[in-house]
Structure formats: structure tokens, C-alpha cells
Amino acid sequence: MKVCYYSVADFVFSVSIPDSVDAGRLLPSFRPFVCDGSGGRRLFDFVTTELEQDSAALSSADLLIEESLNDLGFVRLYSGPGGYLVSVASAPGGVTHFMRVDGGFSRPVAHIVWSDRMAGFVLSSMLRIVYSQAVLLHDAFSVHASAVYADGKAFLFMGESGTGKSTHAALWLKHVPGCGLLNDDNPAVRVIGGVVKAYGTPWSGKTHCYKNLSFPVGGMVRLCQAPANRFMRREGAEAFIAVYPGCSAITGDRRLSDCLCDTLVKVAELVPVATLECLPDRHAALLCRNGLVNVDKEK
């Protein structure tokens, strides 16, 4: 086995894979995040093994608590002895891979069918699942959002699937001078010393944007399609509600959920949060930009 180290949002984790597996080919989006294992907070050590017949089969103690089909693949989450069992397939009916992890998401063991042509996709999905839960214990979270940066700050756009997050980000890139794309699907957010920062990650949906960059957050906006553009500042509980739905957390896990809520309370106090009813046009982007900049000046 060989050990590869990665740093995402200054959280360091290791991935142990067979010597015969090419990590760069298997996980191409992780290349900008390769590190030597030093520095940063050690988050977890991810160990992979060859899946042998029934080696990670369900036991009578495993209880199905969630099932989903999305960009992670076909995922089933079970509550098991001392933690969780996760099964992942690239699609329903595809080859199933398993992962067992403790309640703190610090010691995951994945059972991979390396002959599956989708093994890299599954491994990336497993790492995203573990990462998104493990960071919750450290004043951080992963959020389903498109993130851009301009004038040294990051701006995150959240909303339901199909709302137009990527479209709105593209409007900023076109109409806001000096604007760049940080991540188009799953940036990480941390609170460090009273500063909220957004980070690029290896997970960016269908957009190949894997930047090992970070910026202080200048605003977080929940988008909603509408017949007219309207920017509305949100504070307190409303700000919390605007951000919470896009965050990755096992809602039935009291410890993880409590940590997420504590972090979001800090975020709502430290950065501008707003909702934007919008059309997919230039005015929406500039209205959002000006609204966030003005709010930031008032704080």
C-alpha cells in the first residue's frame, strides 16, 4: 500500500491505496491538493482494501437511514455498530462499493472493487462524504454552491438544483471585472479567528474547476428564480435559514448537526447573507454585487 496526502481548506488527510493504483489517474481533480502530509489540521486517514466476497456485507445490526441518487452516485447510508456503513455505486445496478467509518469520521475503511471502471468516481464520492462530515467538528462545512472571487473576497451562490447557481456565477464572471470562479458545486467554508473563509475543493460538479485557493467570504446569497430582480438582506434566524439547506450534514446525527448549527450562527453574524429573486441577466449580477458590497461597508 502507498499513502497519498491531500490538503483541502488546510485540512490534511491521507488516502492509502494499493501500489498498483495510479492516484493521479484515479483522482485527477485532487492533483492541485497534493501535499506532503505536514502542516494543517489532520482530518482523517482513509484506508482502502480490495473488496472480497462478502467482506463488507450488511449485517443484521446495520439500519438503513438514508438513500439518495445524485452527483455522488447511488448512495445508501446505514447506522452500524460504532458508526456508519456507506454503500456507493456509480448508478443503480452498478458495482457496489462499501465503506465503514466511525462516528467522528476520522478512521474510514473503504472496500473498493478496483476492477470497476468507475472506481475513481466512487472513491472521490466516498472522500467527499467523509470530508463533509469530518469538517463539521472543526468550525467548517461543505456547501452546495457556486463560488466566485472578486476584489480579494469570495461570494457564494446557493439554491435548489436548477435554480441557476452556475448561471449566476457565469454572469458575475462576465460582468464583474477581475472576477474568477473558485468552485462550481461544493466549496468548503471555515471560521478561523473570527474570519469566514471559502476554499476551492476537488469536488466541483460538472465544471472542471479545482483550485487550491481561499478568500475571505464577502457574502452568501440564496437564489430564487423570479420574474423580476430583488435583493434582500437577511439577518439572524433568516440568515441561518438561507444558508442551512445547502450544507452537508447527516441530519439524524445530533453531534454533527449541533456542530453545523453552531458554525452557521457564527457565519450569520460575520458575513453578509441575502436572498436574491432573479432573472438570468446582467442586472441580477450587478444588483447582487452592489448589494453585498454596500452591506459589507455597513458592517
Overview of this protein structure:
- With 299 residues, the protein is an alpha+beta fold.
- It has helices spanning 23-26, 119-134, 165-175, 236-243, 254-270, 282-298; strands at 2-8, 11-17, 34-35, 41-50, 63-70, 73-80, 83-89, 97-102, 109-112, 140-142, 145-150, 153-158, 180-183, 188-192, 195-199, 214-225, 230-234, 273-278.
- A hairpin with a 2-residue loop joins strand 1 (2-8) and strand 2.
- Helix 4 packs across helix 5 (254-270).
- It is globular.
- The model has no long low-confidence stretch (mean pLDDT 93).
Task: Describe the structure in brief.
This protein has 299 residues and is of the alpha+beta class.
> Could you name the ranges where pLDDT drops below 50 across 5 or more consecutive residues?
none
**Outline, from the CA principal axes?**
globular
| Beta-strand content estimate | 35-45%
Radius of gyration: 19 Å
Overall number of strands: 18
Q: Report helical residue fraction.
A: 10-25%
The helix tally amounts to: 6
Largest sheet: 9 strands, mixed
- Secondary structure class reads alpha+beta
**Gap from first CA to last CA:** 51 Å
Give, in spatial order, the strands making up the sheet with the most strands: 3-1-2-4-9-8-7-6-5
Topology order in helix (H) and strand (E) letters: EEHEEEEEEEHEEEHEEEEEHHEH
Mean pLDDT: 93
